[in-house]
Amino acid sequence: MKAVIFDLDGVICFTDKYHYIAWKKLADKNGIYFDEDINNRLRGVSRMASLDIILEKATKQYTEEEKEYMAAEKNATYVELLKEMSPADLSEEVKITLESLRTRGYKLAIGSSSKNTKMILNQLGLADFFDAISDGTNITKSKPDPEVFLKAAEFLGETPENCLVVEDAKAGIQAAFDGGFESAGLGEATEHPNVTYKMDSFKDLLDICK
Ligand code: B16
Ligand code: MG
């Protein structure tokens, strides 16, 4: 293993709570039922695909134009919430583990579905930390398609066999498996049958990547 590709939301940081608040505001405004269980199904899923999942509970049909508007509205709320993030939102555990992996010589990349990746890394003080960033701005297909991780490996100049993907979403483990990557799962990702390593916490990476 020469490189580690990290998912962002749910792995490096906990923007999932902001996604929840922003989607909840949109759902409430439109009288659509939304809860934490539905929010969990949005992990690793692109913005428009997330909206389609939310609209499963809607009682009317929305046009593509209305959907674009709703997604933009949700994103505006989300971006306002991201502005409150700071380096204090990066846990000591994540920080120390990332620094140890770097010291051990691993190349480190981000593989996230989010189009707000650069802003989030900036807020966390990680704007220049990673060797490569593959995110929602350079892909055409979202997880569970492997494109985001294949691009990350390409940007690092490594083959998938040499990269470990770290994920919190089942869709992300599926993407890693289909792309020929080994994976390390956190939370619900550990339930996926194809996850290579099941982790209890982020620092377990230091036992996997010696
Ligand atoms: P945005 P990840 C994903 O991030 C989130 O888990 C998912 O809930 C979100 O819909 C997606 O990013 C797109 O985010 O609206 O900011 O482009 O887990 O792949 O880092
Ligand atoms: Mg995630």
SS strand fraction? 5-15%
Order of helices and strands: EHHHHHEHEHEHEEH
Class computed from helices, strands and strand pairing: alpha/beta
How many beta strands in the DSSP annotation?
A: 6
> How do the strands line up in the largest sheet?
3-2-1-4-5-6
Estimate nothing, just give the exact number of structural domains.
2
CATH architecture of the largest domain: 3-Layer(aba) Sandwich
CATH structural class of the largest domain? Alpha Beta
C-alpha Rg (nearest Å)? 17 Å
What is the assigned CATH homologous superfamily of the largest domain?
HAD superfamily/HAD-like
Q: How many angstroms separate the termini?
A: 9 Å
Ligands, deduplicated? 1,6-di-O-phosphono-beta-D-glucopyranose, magnesium ion
Main sheet overview: 6 strands, parallel
Outline the low-pLDDT stretches. Answer: none
The average pLDDT value, as a whole number, equals 97
**What is the 3D shape?**
globular
CATH topology of the largest domain: Rossmann fold
Q: How much helix is in the residues?
A: 40-55%
The total count of helices amounts to 9
3D architecture notes:
It is built from 9 helices and 6 strands; from the N terminus they run βαααααβαβαβαββα. By secondary structure, the protein is of the alpha/beta class. The protein has 2 domains: 132 residues, Rossmann fold (3-Layer(aba) Sandwich), CATH 3.40.50.1000; 67 residues, Putative phosphatase, domain 2 (DNA polymerase, domain 1), CATH 1.10.150. A 6-stranded parallel sheet has the order 3-2-1-4-5-6. β4, α8 and β5 form a beta-alpha-beta unit. α1 crosses α4. It is globular and about 55 Å long. The structure holds 1,6-di-O-phosphono-beta-D-glucopyranose (B16) and magnesium ion. The site of magnesium ion has 8 residues, from loops. Magnesium ion binds next to loops.
